[in-house]
Write the structure tokens for this entry.
Amino acid sequence: MAASVVTRDHRRGKTALFLIFCGWAGAAPHWFAPGRSLLPAITLAFFLGGYGLRTVLRGHKKWFENSNSRKSQTLQVKGTPQVDVLVAARDEEKVIRRLVEGVQALSYPKEKLSIWIIDDGSQDGTSCVLEDMEQQLPNLNVIRRTRAAGGGKSGALNEALRKLKGDWLLILDADAQLQEDSLERLVLFAQQGGWSAVQLRKSVVNAESNLLTRCQAMEMAMDAFIQQGRLAGGGVVELRGNGQLLRRSVVEECGGFNEDTVTDDLDLSFRFLISGALVSILWDPPVQEEAVETFSALWKQRQRWAEGGLQRFFDYWPLLISGKLTFHQRRDLACFFLLQYALPVISFSDLITTIFTRTIPAYWPLSIVAFSISGLAYWRGCITNCEGPTLPSPRSFSLILSIAYLAHWFIVIPWVTVRMALFPKKLIWAKTNHHGENTLKA
């Protein structure tokens, strides 16, 4: 069942080939006969759009009811497993105390719960806060690393992994906020479903700060909704870092956290998948977190997400097309790779070619279908009953704004692809700054 961590060998070459192929695919239709130039886009829109539409429409209500019904069963669980809560923290003075106090307030049996904070070379007051709390809380364990220890967030998590003995790991970001019964319900859901990993729905606690955070709140709901649809169709669920429950033994069998990637969660998702470990997503309760509040912070964050997303496909593609995966899983990955990563690069090439050849864009039918399906997923996700912060209402203006907001991926992904193809990558921990000004919302 083991799936060892792969290295970043030949990533630049693979990225360059991907860039060349997408560039050719975006430009080639402009030299077709006028009646045939839209044929590639229409064909892809039919197949990819059809699959995306089925994913959005598939079985969410039943899935939501099944997961929510476990709320009444929480206190009946027997043989409560040991859980280690892991947080890699660097310069988190503003939120780290609230996080530890929030975990301590969980209704999970205290003798079965340990908190591990990896202070990864913090240069603010994080270390002082942790030193003070460590003396007061017997189940709080603090691991201190130097800032130059290496490995980024994955290196910090691996430092703790070697010391753990619990059955499950709950990975949280420093700004995470949980409901009192979140861990009980999460563990019960994982045990009863036979899952090796479960991702909590991510919910934005500062959605009302500005239009950008509002769009991100709707985006998180859309993402969770689509993931449930993918799972219901035999497809793939991806971990999202914050609020992921992992069976420790499976993490160890997979080689721990990959220190050669910028997104440990996306990488681990694929290694669980290749190992045959089952991954699910839980709509309620959510893990609440801060959305970034400026475009510069969003640009930085999304570059890292895009790069990590591409890295894992380039690293694991031979195994992703092998017999280790089911047909439904391979089809799901192929469709969403084309929609999430190939389409933005192809569309950018299409636009550049349109400008130079003074012809009409060739891929607008596929883009319209992709944005329309995203709009439907926004709407369905935001009207679904949920715990935690109230999701933004998908009224016409909010829906149109959020669909337009998704266009940033059509800039981020082409730029990251070009950068990955041309420049060597120096792995650093490009963390998101947290403000700690927003508190848990029911």
Observations:
- The chain is about 50% helix and 10% strand.
- The chain has one domain: 1-81+167-427.
- Strands lie at 83-89, 113-120, 140-145, 168-172, 197-204, 244-247, 279-289.
- The longest strand covers residues 279-289.
